[in-house]
Design a protein that fits this description.
- The chain is α/β, with parallel strands linked by helices.
- It has one domain: NAD(P)-binding Rossmann-like Domain (Rossmann fold), CATH 3.40.50.
- The chain contains 12 helices and 7 strands.
- Strands 3-2-1-4-5-6-7 form a 7-stranded parallel beta sheet, sandwiched between helices.
- The radius of gyration is 19 Å and the shape is globular.
- It starts with 8 loop residues before the first strand and ends in a 6-residue tail after the last helix.
């Protein structure tokens, strides 16, 4: 793998925990100057402790950035340029999960999920592109296997991740004409605070699900078991750093062999029957 210069600057969103934290530390270890952003910089303790343990704290600079606030996005990009002189790469990682279904949750929940997971990515990309173009840089976006395979009780989340994948797939050839390489990174289940940060009251969620309660309970039971074999955040973040470093990164990158097989099943499923047959089993009590 061909390395890039060690003085380059990458801005990473959503770095207070999980994949974002691991990507920030991993990029710093690879020699990047890392602008590690989060909505609340007071939550940077875990990140800075991890960076300190890795011996790279001096390369990690915490900035406030709320992807749903255009002024916050523009300010963070401006501060990055002012402090470091250039913006060579961006990792869109910030996101929020939701569990539920439309009839029960209503439109407000869908709009909120889209705002964070889709429009937030687009907003950061908009602000960064002129500077990435000047630097002939990289745009790496963390999506999910849920951006390829629609999953029960993840309608809004999968819709947002599908939208991100479509946006980036359409943008990639255009950005390439001005020297910017675009990649999406698709993790599967990751053992991180992303799961617990939703603060779900599972019994209450099931109780409120009405006619969907049996299917939701079956889905939750299966999901809890699947996270027993979840990937570590550090392992899921490694392909992100690879995408920053590689001379010729692919557009679509999965973070594990399981994720590669899961995504491959969808991409080969021309009429949708294989995926529907698979996910239908997730909402049936075993």
């Amino acid at each position: 793998m061909d390395g890039m210069a060690t003085t380059k600057t990458v801005l990473i969103t959503g770095t207070s925990s999980g994949i974002g934290l691991a990507a920030a530390v991993g990029a710093a270890r690879a020699g990047w100057t890392v602008v590690a952003t989060m909505r609340d910089p007071a939550k940077a303790d875990h990140l800075m402790a991890a960076a300190g343990a890795a011996g790279v704290a001096r390369r990690v600079h915490v900035e406030r950035l709320d992807v749903t606030d255009p002024a916050s996005v523009d300010a963070a990009v401006a501060r990055t340029l002012g402090a470091h002189g250039a913006l060579n790469a961006v990792v869109n990682n910030a996101g929020a999960g939701t569990v539920g279904t439309l009839e029960v949750d209503g439109m407000a929940a869908v709009r909120e999920t889209m705002e964070v997971n889709y429009f937030g990515v687009v907003e950061v990309t908009r602000a960064a592109l002129p500077h990435l173009r000047a630097a002939k840089g990289r745009l790496v976006t963390v999506t999910s296997v849920g951006g390829v395979v629609g999953q029960p009780f993840n309608e809004a989340y999968c819709a947002a991740k599908f939208a991100v994948e479509g946006f980036m797939e359409a943008l990639a050839p255009v950005a390439a004409t001005v020297g910017v390489r675009v990649s999406v990174v698709e993790p599967g289940a990751v053992a991180s605070e992303f799961v617990t940060s939703q603060r779900l009251d599972i019994p209450q969620l099931i109780a409120a699900a009405g006619p969907y309660a049996p299917a939701l309970k079956a889905y939750v039971d299966r999901t809890v078991k699947s996270f027993g074999n979840a990937q570590r955040p550090e392992d899921a973040a490694a392909p992100i750093v690879d995408a920053l470093q590689a001379a010729d990164p692919p557009f679509r990158i999965q973070t594990s062999e399981w994720a590669r097989e899961f995504v491959a099943a969808k991409l080969a499923d021309r009429d949708g029957s294989a995926v529907q047959g698979m996910t239908a089993q997730w909402v049936v009590a075993s």
